[in-house]
Write a structure and sequence with these properties.
With 248 residues, the protein is an alpha+beta fold. 41% of the residues lie in helices and 18% in strands. The protein has helices at residues 32-44, 81-95, 107-123, 129-140, 181-189, 196-203, 209-229, 240-246; strands spanning 7-12, 16-21, 24-29, 52-56, 59-63, 68-69, 149-151, 160-163, 166-170, 177-179.
Amino acid sequence: MTAVEGIEVVVAHQERATLRVGDVFLKIDADQTRTDVEVEAMAIAPIPTPEVLWRKPPVLALAALPGKALGRLGEPSSASSAAWAAAGAAVRRLHEAPLPPWPGRSPDELASRLDGECEWLLTNGVLPADVVTRNRRVAEAALRPWTPVFAHGDLQITHVFVDGDEITGVVDWSEAGPGDALYDLAILTLGHEEHLDDVVAGYGTDVDLDMIRAWWSLRSLLASRWLVEHGFDPSAPGCEFDVLRSQM
Protein backbone atom coordinates (compact mmCIF):
# COMPACT_ATOMS: atom_id res chain seq x y z
CA MET A 1 0.00 0.00 0.00
CA THR A 2 1.28 3.46 -0.85
CA ALA A 3 1.95 5.54 2.25
CA VAL A 4 -0.07 8.74 2.76
CA GLU A 5 0.64 11.67 5.04
CA GLY A 6 -2.82 11.73 6.55
CA ILE A 7 -6.55 11.88 6.01
CA GLU A 8 -8.21 15.19 5.16
CA VAL A 9 -11.85 15.69 6.07
CA VAL A 10 -13.17 17.72 3.13
CA VAL A 11 -16.74 17.96 4.42
CA ALA A 12 -18.67 16.04 7.04
CA HIS A 13 -22.19 16.24 8.45
CA GLN A 14 -24.92 13.81 9.45
CA GLU A 15 -25.98 13.00 5.87
CA ARG A 16 -22.64 12.47 4.18
CA ALA A 17 -18.89 12.90 4.44
CA THR A 18 -16.02 13.28 1.99
CA LEU A 19 -12.47 12.31 2.93
CA ARG A 20 -9.26 12.74 0.96
CA VAL A 21 -6.61 10.06 1.27
CA GLY A 22 -3.67 10.92 -0.96
CA ASP A 23 -5.03 11.22 -4.49
CA VAL A 24 -8.30 9.47 -3.67
CA PHE A 25 -11.55 11.00 -2.47
CA LEU A 26 -13.85 8.75 -0.44
CA LYS A 27 -17.49 9.86 -0.45
CA ILE A 28 -19.68 8.27 2.21
CA ASP A 29 -23.41 8.87 1.75
CA ALA A 30 -26.29 7.46 3.76
CA ASP A 31 -28.59 7.83 0.74
CA GLN A 32 -27.42 5.55 -2.04
CA THR A 33 -29.94 7.10 -4.44
CA ARG A 34 -27.78 10.23 -4.46
CA THR A 35 -24.72 8.15 -5.22
CA ASP A 36 -26.57 6.35 -8.02
CA VAL A 37 -27.38 9.73 -9.59
CA GLU A 38 -23.81 10.94 -9.16
CA VAL A 39 -22.24 7.92 -10.84
CA GLU A 40 -24.69 7.92 -13.75
CA ALA A 41 -24.47 11.68 -14.25
CA MET A 42 -20.67 11.60 -14.40
CA ALA A 43 -20.82 8.76 -16.92
CA ILE A 44 -22.97 10.74 -19.37
CA ALA A 45 -21.81 14.33 -18.76
CA PRO A 46 -19.95 15.80 -21.76
CA ILE A 47 -17.43 17.65 -19.58
CA PRO A 48 -14.52 16.36 -17.46
CA THR A 49 -15.48 14.57 -14.24
CA PRO A 50 -13.52 12.54 -11.67
CA GLU A 51 -12.68 8.93 -12.50
CA VAL A 52 -14.68 6.42 -10.49
CA LEU A 53 -12.10 4.08 -8.94
CA TRP A 54 -14.48 1.77 -7.13
CA ARG A 55 -17.79 1.68 -5.31
CA LYS A 56 -18.70 -0.34 -2.25
CA PRO A 57 -21.83 1.13 -0.63
CA PRO A 58 -21.92 3.38 1.24
CA VAL A 59 -18.49 4.43 -0.09
CA LEU A 60 -17.64 5.84 -3.53
CA ALA A 61 -13.96 6.27 -4.38
CA LEU A 62 -13.00 8.95 -6.90
CA ALA A 63 -9.66 10.01 -8.32
CA ALA A 64 -8.56 13.53 -7.44
CA LEU A 65 -8.75 16.13 -10.20
CA PRO A 66 -5.69 18.17 -11.14
CA GLY A 67 -5.66 21.86 -10.34
CA LYS A 68 -7.68 23.63 -7.67
CA ALA A 69 -11.22 24.83 -7.07
CA LEU A 70 -12.36 27.93 -8.94
CA GLY A 71 -12.84 29.59 -5.55
CA ARG A 72 -14.77 29.54 -2.30
CA LEU A 73 -17.91 31.30 -1.18
CA GLY A 74 -17.01 34.22 1.05
CA GLU A 75 -13.46 34.54 -0.29
CA PRO A 76 -12.03 36.39 -3.32
CA SER A 77 -11.29 34.04 -6.21
CA SER A 78 -7.71 33.94 -7.44
CA ALA A 79 -8.81 32.34 -10.73
CA SER A 80 -8.43 34.37 -13.92
CA SER A 81 -11.25 35.90 -15.90
CA ALA A 82 -10.41 33.35 -18.62
CA ALA A 83 -10.91 30.50 -16.14
CA TRP A 84 -14.32 31.85 -15.17
CA ALA A 85 -15.20 32.16 -18.86
CA ALA A 86 -14.03 28.58 -19.41
CA ALA A 87 -16.39 27.51 -16.61
CA GLY A 88 -19.24 29.24 -18.44
CA ALA A 89 -18.33 27.42 -21.66
CA ALA A 90 -18.24 24.06 -19.85
CA VAL A 91 -21.69 24.70 -18.40
CA ARG A 92 -22.98 25.49 -21.90
CA ARG A 93 -21.69 22.14 -23.18
CA LEU A 94 -23.43 20.38 -20.32
CA HIS A 95 -26.70 22.20 -20.98
CA GLU A 96 -26.61 21.25 -24.67
CA ALA A 97 -26.31 17.53 -23.87
CA PRO A 98 -29.30 15.13 -23.92
CA LEU A 99 -31.38 15.19 -20.75
CA PRO A 100 -30.68 12.62 -18.04
CA PRO A 101 -33.36 9.89 -17.90
CA TRP A 102 -34.60 10.77 -14.38
CA PRO A 103 -36.93 13.58 -13.25
CA GLY A 104 -35.83 16.96 -11.97
CA ARG A 105 -37.38 19.42 -9.53
CA SER A 106 -40.48 21.33 -10.58
CA PRO A 107 -41.34 24.99 -9.90
CA ASP A 108 -44.25 23.83 -7.74
CA GLU A 109 -41.94 21.69 -5.58
CA LEU A 110 -39.55 24.61 -5.10
CA ALA A 111 -42.43 26.98 -4.31
CA SER A 112 -43.61 24.66 -1.54
CA ARG A 113 -40.09 24.50 -0.09
CA LEU A 114 -39.77 28.28 -0.30
CA ASP A 115 -42.94 28.67 1.80
CA GLY A 116 -41.55 26.44 4.51
CA GLU A 117 -38.06 27.93 4.59
CA CYS A 118 -39.27 31.54 4.73
CA GLU A 119 -41.64 30.62 7.57
CA TRP A 120 -38.74 29.05 9.49
CA LEU A 121 -36.48 32.08 8.95
CA LEU A 122 -39.20 34.46 10.19
CA THR A 123 -40.42 32.30 13.10
CA ASN A 124 -36.89 31.88 14.43
CA GLY A 125 -35.81 35.48 13.83
CA VAL A 126 -32.83 34.31 11.81
CA LEU A 127 -33.00 37.31 9.46
CA PRO A 128 -34.89 40.63 9.57
CA ALA A 129 -38.41 40.27 8.20
CA ASP A 130 -37.81 42.86 5.45
CA VAL A 131 -34.81 40.90 4.15
CA VAL A 132 -36.82 37.68 3.97
CA THR A 133 -39.88 39.36 2.46
CA ARG A 134 -37.95 41.28 -0.18
CA ASN A 135 -35.90 38.25 -1.23
CA ARG A 136 -38.99 36.08 -1.37
CA ARG A 137 -40.53 38.50 -3.87
CA VAL A 138 -37.33 38.43 -5.91
CA ALA A 139 -37.07 34.64 -5.67
CA GLU A 140 -40.62 33.99 -6.85
CA ALA A 141 -39.68 35.25 -10.32
CA ALA A 142 -37.56 32.12 -10.80
CA LEU A 143 -40.56 29.87 -10.16
CA ARG A 144 -41.83 29.97 -13.73
CA PRO A 145 -41.93 27.21 -16.35
CA TRP A 146 -38.53 26.58 -17.90
CA THR A 147 -37.20 24.45 -20.73
CA PRO A 148 -35.18 21.75 -18.91
CA VAL A 149 -31.51 21.16 -19.65
CA PHE A 150 -28.95 18.70 -18.29
CA ALA A 151 -28.18 20.64 -15.10
CA HIS A 152 -25.50 19.93 -12.53
CA GLY A 153 -27.85 21.10 -9.79
CA ASP A 154 -25.21 22.18 -7.23
CA LEU A 155 -22.60 24.02 -9.27
CA GLN A 156 -20.81 25.77 -6.43
CA ILE A 157 -17.41 27.20 -7.30
CA THR A 158 -15.77 24.65 -4.99
CA HIS A 159 -17.10 21.97 -7.35
CA VAL A 160 -15.35 23.37 -10.44
CA PHE A 161 -11.64 22.65 -10.76
CA VAL A 162 -9.21 24.66 -12.88
CA ASP A 163 -5.57 24.52 -13.84
CA GLY A 164 -4.56 27.94 -15.08
CA ASP A 165 -7.25 28.99 -17.53
CA GLU A 166 -8.50 25.44 -18.20
CA ILE A 167 -11.31 23.48 -16.57
CA THR A 168 -9.97 20.13 -15.36
CA GLY A 169 -13.25 18.76 -14.05
CA VAL A 170 -16.47 19.20 -12.12
CA VAL A 171 -17.32 17.23 -8.97
CA ASP A 172 -20.36 16.46 -6.77
CA TRP A 173 -23.08 15.41 -9.22
CA SER A 174 -25.62 14.01 -6.74
CA GLU A 175 -28.14 16.79 -7.51
CA ALA A 176 -27.82 16.47 -11.30
CA GLY A 177 -30.91 16.14 -13.46
CA PRO A 178 -33.23 18.08 -15.77
CA GLY A 179 -33.36 21.66 -14.53
CA ASP A 180 -33.23 25.36 -15.31
CA ALA A 181 -30.05 26.45 -17.09
CA LEU A 182 -30.05 29.75 -15.21
CA TYR A 183 -29.98 27.95 -11.87
CA ASP A 184 -26.58 26.43 -12.64
CA LEU A 185 -25.23 29.83 -13.74
CA ALA A 186 -26.62 31.45 -10.61
CA ILE A 187 -25.08 28.90 -8.23
CA LEU A 188 -21.73 29.20 -10.01
CA THR A 189 -21.71 32.97 -9.48
CA LEU A 190 -23.42 33.12 -6.06
CA GLY A 191 -21.46 35.58 -3.93
CA HIS A 192 -19.15 36.33 -6.87
CA GLU A 193 -21.20 38.77 -8.92
CA GLU A 194 -17.96 40.39 -10.10
CA HIS A 195 -17.38 37.31 -12.30
CA LEU A 196 -20.89 37.07 -13.73
CA ASP A 197 -19.90 38.85 -16.95
CA ASP A 198 -17.00 36.41 -17.45
CA VAL A 199 -19.25 33.39 -16.98
CA VAL A 200 -21.94 34.77 -19.30
CA ALA A 201 -19.30 35.58 -21.95
CA GLY A 202 -18.05 31.99 -21.81
CA TYR A 203 -21.59 30.62 -21.85
CA GLY A 204 -22.04 32.39 -25.15
CA THR A 205 -25.78 33.15 -25.28
CA ASP A 206 -28.09 35.85 -23.96
CA VAL A 207 -28.78 35.37 -20.25
CA ASP A 208 -31.58 36.94 -18.24
CA LEU A 209 -29.62 38.61 -15.44
CA ASP A 210 -32.76 39.39 -13.44
CA MET A 211 -33.49 35.66 -13.38
CA ILE A 212 -29.95 34.96 -12.18
CA ARG A 213 -30.58 37.34 -9.28
CA ALA A 214 -33.91 35.64 -8.59
CA TRP A 215 -32.10 32.30 -8.29
CA TRP A 216 -29.49 33.89 -5.98
CA SER A 217 -32.31 34.83 -3.60
CA LEU A 218 -34.10 31.50 -3.96
CA ARG A 219 -31.00 29.40 -3.39
CA SER A 220 -29.95 31.45 -0.36
CA LEU A 221 -33.41 31.28 1.22
CA LEU A 222 -33.71 27.54 0.63
CA ALA A 223 -30.20 26.71 1.86
CA SER A 224 -30.01 28.79 5.04
CA ARG A 225 -31.79 26.44 7.48
CA TRP A 226 -29.92 23.38 6.17
CA LEU A 227 -26.60 25.19 6.59
CA VAL A 228 -27.39 26.28 10.13
CA GLU A 229 -28.61 22.83 11.17
CA HIS A 230 -25.55 21.09 9.70
CA GLY A 231 -22.92 23.27 11.33
CA PHE A 232 -22.19 25.73 8.53
CA ASP A 233 -22.38 29.52 8.84
CA PRO A 234 -24.45 31.34 6.20
CA SER A 235 -23.81 34.59 8.12
CA ALA A 236 -20.07 34.51 7.36
CA PRO A 237 -18.87 37.46 5.26
CA GLY A 238 -19.72 37.03 1.59
CA CYS A 239 -21.99 34.03 2.18
CA GLU A 240 -25.74 33.46 1.87
CA PHE A 241 -26.96 36.11 4.34
CA ASP A 242 -24.79 38.74 2.67
CA VAL A 243 -26.18 37.68 -0.71
CA LEU A 244 -29.71 38.17 0.63
CA ARG A 245 -28.86 41.58 2.10
CA SER A 246 -27.26 42.66 -1.19
CA GLN A 247 -30.60 42.09 -2.93
CA MET A 248 -32.13 44.87 -0.83
